[in-house]
Amino acid sequence: MTIDTRQLRYFIAVAEETHFGRAAERLRMSQPPLSQQIKQLEVSLDTSLFTRSTRSVDLTPAGDLLLTRGRRIIDELESIEADIRRVGQGLQGIIRVGFTGSATYAIMPRLVRQASHTYPDLAIEVSGEKLTPRLVAELDSHVIDLAILRPPFSHPDIDHVVIASEPLVAAIPLGSALTRRPELLMAELVGEEFVGYPSSSTVSQAIAAAWHARDVQPVCVQTASETSTLLSLVAAGIGIALVPESATSLQIGGTHFIPVSDAPRVDIAIAWRKTESSPAVRTFLPFVEDLMRNPPERQK
């Protein structure tokens, strides 16, 4: 015995309308074929589903059971169909996004908040405070699906697009006399002790190139991969740090930020696997790009 889902839908319409004529109108079909389909269903089940009169039809106990169970079946089938369509359209699934340094604090919260409204059926898994080399490696090994990182980097299987550029600013301990300055030049930082990112960091490499161009060898007393740790070292008075402007969104007591007019700029980009086939990732990628290109206000 097999219950045809079409027959089940016909049965539910008749049961809810309690009339073959009204059910036929609802189903946009003529009454004789509808009556024939219900009769075939009863024959296949070897039981009567309705008691019939000239004015209406009533459910038998077997019909009442089929109506209860049948509604659940149809609801589940419709839910499955909708879910499959949403997955195919990239509107449902899991997306893992990794963030570099200061983007963890400047971009991640807004992305998660807006994605939850725009794509409520997408589960966004985020991880932050990672250097670009690690993010590229995690993309390559499928640990993450998208990365917000700082170019340049080179990988044959990873593509990226630069979204924005931002200047570096000086993070200075509050006890320093430099905090009274509204703006600084890099030359005014010569002789200071620094804390910085590891040498593999894109930001660190940009800073090193800027000092090299000035024939200066800065004194770096400590390094840290995480922007939050770096700023904590500044607050503790260990040294000065040059950090992306977006790091100012991370407020740590004891740290003061000052623009450095001739400091280098660093790019921020979104990266993905060239062979990415996930509909969810393909749908989410332009959403992230648009969100990053059009912030609600300039990040500070």
TrEMBL record:
Cellular component GO terms, alphabetical: protein-DNA complex
Keywords associated with the record: DNA-binding, Transcription, Transcription regulation
Family that this chain belongs to: Belongs to the LysR transcriptional regulatory family.
Gene3D superfamilies from the UniProt entry: Periplasmic binding protein-like II, Winged helix-like DNA-binding domain superfamily/Winged helix DNA-binding domain
MF term (GO), any: DNA-binding transcription factor activity
Domain (HTH lysR-type): residue spans on this chain: 3-60
Name the record gives this protein: Unannotated protein
PROSITE patterns: HTH_LYSR
Protein's organism: freshwater metagenome
SUPFAM superfamilies according to UniProt: Periplasmic binding protein-like II, Winged helix' DNA-binding domain
